[in-house]
Amino acid sequence: MINFGYTIWIPLLPFLMFLLLGLAGNKLKPKLSGLLGTCGLAIITLLSYITAYKYFFTSEKIDGAFQKITAFKTTWLQLTDNLYIDLGVLLDPISVMMLVVITTVSFMVHIYSLGYMKGEKGFERYYAFLSLFSFSMLGLVLATNIFQMYIFWELVGVSSYLLIGFYYQKPSAVRASKKAFIVTRFADLGFLIGILLLSFNTKTFDFITLTDPAGSAIAQGSGIAFLGLSVMTWSMIFVFMGGIGKSAMFPFHIWLPDAMEGPTPVSALIHAATMVVAGVYLVARLFPIYSVSAPVALEVVAYIGAFSSLFAAIIACTQTDIKRVLAYSTISQIGYMLVALGVSGYGGHEGLGYMASMFHLFTHAMFKALLFLGAGAIIHAVHSNYMTDMGGLRKYLPVTHITFLVACLTIAGIPPFSGFFSKDEILAAALHSNKLLFAVEYAVAGITAFYMFRIYFSIFWGKETQYHETPHEAPATMTIPLIILATGSVFSGFIPFNQLVTSDGKAFESGLELAVAVPSVLIGLIGIWIAYIMYRKETAIPEKLAATFKYSYKWAYNKFYMDELYLFITRNIIFKHISEPVAWFDRHIVDGTMNAIASVTQSASYRIRGLQSGQLQKYAYLFVTGAVLLAILFIYLWK
Amino acid sequence: MNAGIPLQYFLILAAIMFFSGVYGFLTRRNLITILMSVELILNSVNINFLAFNRYLYPDKMDGMFFSLFVIAVAAAEVAVAISIIINIYRRFTTINVEDVDEMKY
Amino acid sequence: MIANQIMFFLFSAVIIVFSILTVTSRKILRAAVYLLFVLISTAGLYFMLNYQFLAAVQLTVYAGGIVVLIIFSILLTSHISQKFEPAGLKKSVFSAIAALTGAILSIVTILDYKFEATTQAAKEVDMKVIGKSLLSVENDGYILPFEVISVLLLAAMVAAIAIAKKSAPSGTQSTTLKQE
What is the ipTM of this complex? Predict the structure, then answer.
């Protein structure tokens, strides 16, 4: 048995960095705090690569399946004999894969931020929060039990809130951070209900016990039915509700576009590569339960994912803020991952969807982070987020141009880049299970290619804009991560995921299905070609199309008015009819009772005070009356 | 010797005198008239004691001595009360009991 | 027998009428005189009850001492012919109610109760017996209250003098003390 005890340091080191930078940050020089944060991440990146190597290539396999190893465990809260909450480290294929993803992307973002955030006020605070985020995310993926995952889930939400609202003096940033936190918190309510239902029926929180396909935990609660669905199904749907919130699926997607108010590296790390995939990770982690006991919940997952990806792709076609386009793109791609999970079965080739989803998670992290960091470099050069202010940048930003192009080709699914392989697997899994979902995802692939190349051409080709100051290429600290991530995007497609990360831990054979591959490449190329026609040179085609499809364009541009709907519901319905009566009740009845007690006491004491009048005869009168009354009482009324 | 007059007559008489004294104590405004009402009360009590002694316990003398001491105490009390009233008169220039109310809230 | 009853009714009529007049009279000196009459009639009642010594004490101390003292203080503190305003209506009504209630309660109780006399022989109470009792320490002796009463009378004298004394002007008093 290999000793994996050192893995506890992988989450702990960023936590220590957070404490150090948080408490002592403003006493250190900014550059030093940045370097400290980056070094911490460098160490744990190395540690996770070592762990991945050891786990995947040298650990023992039982029945050809990778084992779940609990590297570290300590009991935090003992509720009953069987029910206890641990804190620990669980290593299994998906968690080790996530370790690699998170630490790599976080490391890249740390290096990038040295250049991007240089000179900003609050530099140390930024690195402290980045370390906090890394700690939380790592704790989430390494969780041994569902409650620990919930704890770190919330911590990740907090870090996201802190980082979105980093420019706290900007009202829009503050609003966005509040929105993100509130929406995800509301979704987490569902998560908590799901956890409670699940653990009540299975009597355990521990993942290994819960997800043992042959174990008793999974079979619990399948019999009891409520409104036609078993308790397990309900609990899994509720648990997924947390995932909908955190992964910004419809209808809780509203926070992600606004979260772009945060600094761009934050968007790259949190809102593209790591936090938003927490929902996918959750479903993957609980996949045996979903697949064996609650298949209806899995269908819910798939349909929500498909709808969100189509919805977001349509909106992305009309947006002009490049970060928002990328945000909607993220929603769309996460939809892909959820569809893949939703159509997957358990075990062997049935589990193709599972593997494809994890594969896409891996590649998506690389290329989406690359896209965001590239966008950061562009924004840094042009000082504006809007496509309309850019054009012809290929002359000024060569490195950014090439890496951005690589990323766009990857996301469009063009071989031999990694996006082609992962998307292909997803489409293959969907084709074999659910033709409708396949059709939707196929269409989305084309739309994705279109809108990504729309922004590519608008930024780097398009009109020749006159800039106030000549845009200059980003410094080395920013371009090196771009190059590294581009390399990852190119080559990670060749990693044999079907040997390493599968639904039951065993390897299975899968290859390239030409029936799926060729059409998907074709539609990608069609999307690119359409974007080329419309945007390569400045033409009138976009305006003409927008004018023709006036209403569709308006609805898509305004994000289908989802934000307005939410504001209406909260302001007019919840605030007016629920919050205000409750507030009135609290102010007038609860407080009123207290005030009434006080004022009654006060007036009573004022009246009683009159008894001490100083008048001798009054005292005597009371005395006589009292004596007479007592005499009557005792002589005549006391029986 | 007193068979003709039942005990209750004495007691009723004493009761009427007592409650007249009480009424006077509660109603009168001059401090000295209050004192006079107190004397009425004390006298009624004396009558009571003596009546009981004579009618119910003729072999004992307790009632009589009690009355004797009551008279002595009443005398002492009147002396002290008068001196207090004179002091009040010096301070307030009035002996209206309603004006002597400084010990109030 | 009949003479007894007539005496009794006479005395009680005087007592009742004059006691009510005492508490309702508007002129203070008249109230004092009515009180005197009440006290004298009470002494008469004591004579009827065969308590001669006590009756004599009543006449001497009460009628002769206390009423005189009261009249002195009246003269010291107010104008003789000063007339009071009657007491406020509310006050007199309430007090009358209280007093009447008490009176009725007492009378009803008295009439209800069965008084049982002892069957022992009566004791003659004359000066010799009284004198012996006042100074005897046996069962029938009242020496303790007697001594206590004498202490009380002393204290009352001292108190009366001390309270009613005019305090000396503050200047001379303190300087004299300082020189000591």
Answer: 0.91
